[in-house]
Amino acid sequence: MKLPDDFITKYQRLLGAEAPAFLAALTEPANTAGYRVNPERQVPAKLTSAPTVPYAPWGYFGTVKGRSLVHQSGTVYSQEPSAMFVGATAAPARGERVLDLCAAPGGKTTHLASYLQGTGLLVTNEINRKRVRVLAENVERFGVANALILNDSPDTLSPVFPDFFDKVLVDAPCSGEGMFRKDPGAMDYWSLDYVDECAARQREILTEAVKMVKPGGQLIYSTCTFAPEEDEQMMAWLVKTFPDFQLVPVEKTGGVIDAKPEWADGNPDLKNAARLFPNRLQGEGHFVAKLQRATTAEGVQPHGQAHLGTALTGEQRRLWADFSRTVLGDAAPTGDLVTIKDQLFAVPANLPALKHAHVFRPGLHLGTFKKNRFEPAYALALASDPQRVTQTLAIDQDQWIAWVHGEALSLTTAPAKGWYLLTCDHQPVGFGKVVGQTVKNFFPKGLRFTVYPDDLD
Ligand SMILES: C[S@@+](CC[C@H](N)C(=O)[O-])C[C@H]1O[C@@H](n2cnc3c(N)ncnc32)[C@H](O)[C@@H]1O
């Protein structure tokens, strides 16, 4: 792998004696796979016996196959280890309101959700129409029940959520120098000018992001690039432009080091931010900063209240109540129930008016009203705790392989007719409908896959 000449020259100048080690690390094959386990699941011991990522709760070094039960059931999320430092720095407390402004495909969002444990509010936004679909798939797979998924530009969102969030994460689109080793294609569009273009876009995003942090709240900024223009210099610009924001210390362990004031305007507070270099730890590289907004700033109230969808008809209420009582028991999700066309959602409470936002998912998808019946959603299955759900049906590995392929299952002894949360090795894998000796398959058509012998451990 050949790094761009301008890149080599730039980092030789910036890093001096450390440059050879840094440049050598970038040309070595990446050996930095990682995954996070989902604290809401009963996680198999083989996943938690791997070496732990020192700075990231739920983080492990190693690989998990995409066509595996633990991946399909949202028991794990594969994530490059240094990216885990971002969620670990944000570490929202239970009950907080959190915005992930640049969220697809959902690595940081699912990490933030693990901290929130279904409490508070997670607004997760992705500007790109194709990428927001992937974000939604990952949010659903991870069983996140308290998320509102939006598909907007930051300047559309800032008037909707003024001074609203306890934490705002900007995991910014960047020049991706930390991706060179994993994805050498990232070098094709890299240039010194590209770094400046990225920095200009980051300033635009941050200008909107700061407006959504409540007084006393925090902004977390991260990139997967080493470029000072997008990292230290961006933070130096931010604290100068928005003086009610101050860089506060990021806790550093496991080879993470202070950011470099000398790469910007010398502001000593820049040391509070963190640098992850691939020659110093097992990870691809990141920059992470935490900024606190002063409590003295005057906050404004967001406008109005969200009116999403339509209230349920009496018949719809009855159908949902029957399903929820019989199948879910006391595991029924919380949130305001609304329908959009024939789809039922549980919408997080206390949202401001969203009429200028493009709502991709208003909350947890509970299911679909068909003529005289209710069909539960895959998202509801993965957000359900099998230990609390009344009607569960355990299937074995062979049945799981048939299930994710879209096949009906034949049972030798069948329970009573109705909907069941299917589990395999204690993980939720979807809802099935038992009719006679058969379990009808409702695994979403777009997600079906074939498991090959190599996919099994
Ligand atoms: C680094 S990626 C986010 C990765 C994600 N946080 C994760 O952990 O999976 C940056 C995201 O910003 C989005 N983006 C690009 N331009 C943007 C803009 N002008 N405003 C907001 N987001 C933008 C990209 O589509 C991309 O999904």
From TrEMBL:
GO terms for biological process: methylation. GO terms for molecular function: methyltransferase activity. It comes from the Bacteria. Coiled coil: none annotated. Residues 11-294 form the SAM-dependent MTase RsmB/NOP-type domain. S-adenosyl-L-methionine binds at residues 102-108, 126, 171. The active site is at 224 (nucleophile). The keyword Secreted does not apply. Keywords: Cytoplasm, Methyltransferase, RNA-binding, S-adenosyl-L-methionine, Transferase. The keyword RNA-binding applies. Belongs to the class I-like SAM-binding methyltransferase superfamily. RsmB/NOP family. PANTHER family: 28S RRNA (CYTOSINE(4447)-C(5))-METHYLTRANSFERASE-RELATED, NOP2 YEAST -RELATED NOL1/NOP2/FMU SUN DOMAIN-CONTAINING. This is 23S rRNA methyltransferase. It comes from Levilactobacillus spicheri.
